[in-house]
Amino acid sequence: MSTDTARLEAFSDGVFAIAITLLILEIKVPTAGGGVLTTQLLRQWPSYFSFVASFAFIGIMWINHHRLFTHIRRCDDLLLIFNLLLLLGITFVPFPTAVLAAHLGGPDQRTAAVLFQATYLLISLLFNLLWRYAASSRRRLLSPDTDASSVRRITRQYSFGPLLYLICLALVRVNVLASLLVNFSLACFFAIPAGRNRAVK
Amino acid sequence: MSTDTARLEAFSDGVFAIAITLLILEIKVPTAGGGVLTTQLLRQWPSYFSFVASFAFIGIMWINHHRLFTHIRRCDDLLLIFNLLLLLGITFVPFPTAVLAAHLGGPDQRTAAVLFQATYLLISLLFNLLWRYAASSRRRLLSPDTDASSVRRITRQYSFGPLLYLICLALVRVNVLASLLVNFSLACFFAIPAGRNRAVK
Amino acid sequence: MSTDTARLEAFSDGVFAIAITLLILEIKVPTAGGGVLTTQLLRQWPSYFSFVASFAFIGIMWINHHRLFTHIRRCDDLLLIFNLLLLLGITFVPFPTAVLAAHLGGPDQRTAAVLFQATYLLISLLFNLLWRYAASSRRRLLSPDTDASSVRRITRQYSFGPLLYLICLALVRVNVLASLLVNFSLACFFAIPAGRNRAVK
Amino acid sequence: MSTDTARLEAFSDGVFAIAITLLILEIKVPTAGGGVLTTQLLRQWPSYFSFVASFAFIGIMWINHHRLFTHIRRCDDLLLIFNLLLLLGITFVPFPTAVLAAHLGGPDQRTAAVLFQATYLLISLLFNLLWRYAASSRRRLLSPDTDASSVRRITRQYSFGPLLYLICLALVRVNVLASLLVNFSLACFFAIPAGRNRAVK
Q: A71 vs chain C: nearest CA distance in angstroms?
């Protein structure tokens, strides 16, 4: 039995909205009498950094989720479960980001970067699982308006994800900063839709 | 007076979304200088376990709620109240899960398991209350498209719940791990829709 | 300029959902080695009480909000502002409830009860403000399906609120427990729709 | 490719709802035995002030967001990104508000006020970015019902924002309280729609 995706999207939006705002709770208000305020505020930079970075990463994931569900019009039980798995991964993002911010430049930065990159590798696998399941033609979960070439373009763009994040994970052994730079570039790559310049509507 | 269920679903989705993400707040970011990061991260396994377990359990409950409300199309005042009671139970889930994770293997694991199993017994009773109220034919809250055999299948599947969770609760006295294994199997049972293989659309 | 109420309801549902689940965060997980688990769990009863009480009160307010907005179909700028004021009051509910639970039976229970009753008095005034503004015939914010007698029944039921909560507040001086009992009865009164037995649809 | 704005609005409503209720978490429940309750409650005034002020400011921003999206009917990828940037700014509001409340009247009030005013300057720039992008006629993101004069009125009202908040920021050097008073008056200015008295529908 398949139903439409309205509630799946509403529930996902709620989870995204909470995950994206969660790290503001980690930013503590400096109390009066705890020293010069400017110094106290500046000392908290890892909190600001992880708040903004999580916001950007989860925001880009939301844009991708939104983009997929302009094509996915019906859902069945397995799609609900794959979507929940993806949301589980996304809800976890603030944690490795905060661990990375707290340990970058310290003796444990390699461990923190491994945790961070592994999270993204997992999420890219879950995005592929969700999309490939929905796009499989015999399930008829996509909108009848979706043309086959759009589906192929998204499938191709997404299939690069796990491979590239695996390279990021391997790069951690060589150079932590380089691996993070590649990770950030990948976020920009996924912010831009597949086959942008050829898209017509 | 009966109205449609759009707002009931939107509000429930919000409560589910918050309940499902709440336990990520319990996972603390290890600070630099608190020892080797890998050790610190591994020591927190009860937090990860309860986060993932709550996510899975609440996710399955959301799937069930979603499934019921593909049939329930109208709501009245008592349905709103029964839905609130169910949400109260679901919002509580992260607490017994975290208590269980913190005490599993310790001297108080039996108490923790009783609390955990009793919560599920209560929730299964509340699911039955909601469904049986809505499905009662004279209230006309179900969609006219719902056929009587689907209603009977759901009613039958749900009626097993309280009995099986009661057995789980009794099993705690005999063997804590066995009772938890039965509980986890039940979650899988409720993830699969009633009469899956016979469903036609 | 007036617009429909879809987003006002969605935003309100989000705020209600957060307010209603917030107090679960106040229930702390007892750590292993902190004494016998049963004792630790039982000692937290004020937290459970305020969680359940806030849930019930905010749930009833949500039912009332839902009921009003089955009649209100259009919104203008002042309605948005009055709705925000009401949400401000509702978001505040968990705080006086927790203060009351922490101090009931103690030397400061009167202060806690005054804070609690004053919050309800304020909210009942804000509910009246919202409804009377929307129901004023010259603003045409109500659905054309709403009959004048339903409007009058709701107006009459709501106009009792501030008076009755004022009596509750005065009762605190005489007897704290009596004032709370009247408050709880009032919640039940507002859970039941105006003119229930005469409602037809 | 452009799609409708339903999910963008639902996701934004979720983020607004969380941001607006977040500061209630900062209000601590005074424990029994910590002194006279009234004194303890009154001593927390900066928490109440920042809760109410954030609620008011974010509420007015929500009204503005709601107002813009009665005109914006389609969204594209850049609009999603500009909307995320705006939400990032809005989610941050509780932090500078709490810092201001904690330091007002203290030796660091100037630093706190600079942080507060700079946040509003940034948000007013992001509101302009979002609106000007959407209103640009060649993108066709506005509803066909929107008349050109409404668009011009909103554009004009919003273009004052950055300039006025820049003046507020400069005023901090001269007089902290004066700069805050101007900031609060601006909030009232943006609560009222552009060209209120001339609006027809």
A: 24
Q: Does the beta carbon of A10 lie under 8 angstroms from any beta carbon of chain B?
A: yes
List, in order, residues 6 or more apart from D198 with CB less than 8 Å away: none
Angstrom distance (rounded) from CA A83 to CA A88: 9
D35 touching B, CB under 8 A?
no
Whether the CB-CB separation of A102 and A139 falls below 8 Å is answered with no
Alpha helix locations (H) across B35-175?
37-43, 45-71, 77-92, 94-103, 109-135, 148-174
Q: Which long-range contacts (CB under 8 A, 24 or more apart) does A34-41 make?
A: A36/D108, A37/D99, A37/D103, A37/D108, A37/D111, A37/D112, A38/D108, A38/D111, A41/D99, A41/D111, A41/D115
Task: Identify the chains in contact with C, defined as 3+ C-beta pairs within 8 A.
Answer: A, B, D
Average pLDDT over residues A123-134: 93
Determine the Cα–Cα distance for residues B113 and B172; give it in Å rounded to an integer.
7
Q: Please state, in angstroms and rounded to a whole number, the distance separating the CA atoms of residues A27 and D104.
A: 19
B106 or A84, higher pLDDT: A84
Q: Which residue from C minimizes the CA distance to A10?
A: C10
Check if C13 contacts A (Cβ < 8 Å). no
Q: How far apart (Å, rounded) are the C-alpha atoms in residues A95 and B48?
A: 11
Average the pLDDT over D99-103 and give the result.
Answer: 88
> Checking phi first, is residue B194 left (phi over 0); if not, alpha (psi -120 to 50) or beta?
beta
Residue A194: what pLDDT? 62
Per DSSP, which regions of A58-112 are E strands?
Answer: 74-75
Distance in angstroms (rounded) separating the CA atoms of residues D124 and B113: 53
pLDDT at residue A200 greater than cutoff 50:
no
Please write the tens of the pLDDT for every residue from C67-82.
899 889 888 888 999 9
Q: Calculate how close chain B gets to A15, using CA atoms only, in Å.
A: 5
B17: chain D residues, CB-CB within 8 Å: 14
In degrees and rounded to multiples of 5, residue A74 shows phi and psi of: -125, 155
d(C-alpha D56, C-alpha C88), whole Å: 9
Residue of chain B nearest A23, judged by CA positions: B25
CB pairs under 8 A between B and D: 3
Across the interface, whether the CB atoms of D92 and A24 are under 8 A apart is answered yes
- Predicted TM-score (pTM) of this structure: 0.89
Consecutive H or E run containing A62:
helix A45-71
- Chain A environment of C17 (Cβ under 8 Å): 14
Q: Which stretches of chain B score pLDDT less than 50?
A: 1, 197-201
Please report residues of C whose CB lies closer than 8 A to that of A14.
14, 17
What is the ipTM metric for this complex?
0.86
Interstrand relation of B74-75 and B3-4 (parallel, antiparallel or unpaired): antiparallel
Among B5, B21, B71, B154, the strongest candidate for a mutation testing the A interface, having the largest count of A CBs within 10 A, is B21
Q: DSSP letter at B107?
A: T
